[in-house]
Specification:
11 helices, mainly alpha, about 325 residues
Length: about 325
């Protein structure tokens, strides 16, 4: 247990950075046994990552009864899935340089997790429900699948450009057929996962409203709800169109769709964090803005009360100087 306490984010983040450096070095020169060195660092980083998440998940369960605890744990869990996928792909396709595109996304999630380490934890009362578990897990896996589709789409566009210009390039990539297939699968998978996440979120809202004495309608004007609906409808439309219109599944169309989906996802995550979603309180920026609004209202009320007091005092003074009959 003491050993687990000493593992920090720096341990596995540094391992992933070393692996990324090894991947980039393949562009410039060749080193014997580099594949095994890369695999060793990736496995060591994933082991440290797993131990870190396991230890802090146990702490979160003991203190709050929550699986991920906060956006910090949510981001690091998504990074763990991406790192595991990279390790699996490095075994299946050892000669392709998928890590040069996948590891930066993994490190970006870790960086976001560090930025969110000081944010408020998830609400313990709501996170223990089944709907919250389904909601959080579906959105986590959906985010990971969208990120994978983005990586496959970017690699497809690069490989397509290289083949069109009849250049082999300085680094090997999977075939266009393989990249197109997995980009298409990621699109369908993310649609299913976000469908589950959106539906469970609506069900969760309905359950929460039914527990109130005066149930209110679902707040469709909530930025989290309508942006989630837009993202889901975009994925659903793209999946249905690609299923029934086969030319949309060929060429660069799928690559463009998964890339745009990733950009939509980034916007969605920013909005979710800004409004303090899944927490009892609001995010620091939203809370600060609301504090300013409350302060302005308080100042306005003070000015109104002061003006009313001055007018009342003036009225009393005029009444004191007036005599019955209209003489002063």
């Amino acid at each position: 247990m003491e050993l687990l306490q000493k593992i920090s984010v720096t341990c596995f983040a540094a391992s992933y950075l070393v692996v990324l450096g090894i991947e980039l070095s393949r562009v410039f020169f060749q080193i014997g046994q580099r594949r095994y060195i890369r695999f060793g660092f990736a496995a060591a980083g994933l082991f440290a990552h797993t131990a870190f998440l396991g230890y802090h998940t146990q702490l979160s369960f003991d203190s709050q009864g929550i699986w991920l605890g906060s956006w910090f744990g949510w981001c690091l869990s998504g990074a763990w899935v991406l790192a595991a996928v990279y390790l699996w792909l490095s075994i299946r396709t050892p000669h392709s340089m998928i890590g040069m595109f996948l590891l930066p996304v993994t490190l970006l999630l870790i960086w976001f997790g560090q930025r969110f380490s000081d944010t408020l934890p998830f609400s313990p009362g709501r996170a223990k429900t089944v709907w919250n578990m389904i909601h959080g897990s579906a959105l986590l896996l959906g985010t990971v699948v969208v990120a994978l589709g983005f990586v496959f789409g970017i690699m497809y566009l690069i490989q397509s450009r290289r083949l069109k210009q009849k250049r082999s390039g300085s680094f090997p990539l999977p075939s266009l057929e393989w990249l197109n297939l997995w980009a298409e699968r990621s699109l369908v998978g993310s649609t299913v996962l976000f469908c589950g996440g959106f539906a469970s979120g609506i069900a969760l809202k309905m359950v929460q409203q039914s527990n109130h004495s005066t149930p209110a309608p679902i707040p469709w004007s909530d930025p989290v709800i309508w942006t989630s609906a837009v993202l889901f409808l975009w994925l659903l439309t793209a999946s249905i169109f690609g299923t029934f219109y086969k030319p949309a599944r060929r060429g660069r169309k799928v690559a463009y769709v998964v890339t745009i989906s990733f950009l939509f996802l980034l916007l969605e995550l920013v909005i979710v964090w800004q409004v303090g979603h899944a927490t009892d309180q609001q995010s620091p920026r939203t809370a600060a803005a609301n504090c300013q609004i409350v302060q302005r209202r308080s100042n306005l009320q003070l000015r109104v009360q002061k003006r009313f007091s001055i007018n009342a005092l003036a009225g009393c003074q005029r009444s004191a100087h007036c005599e019955p009959g209209g003489r002063s």
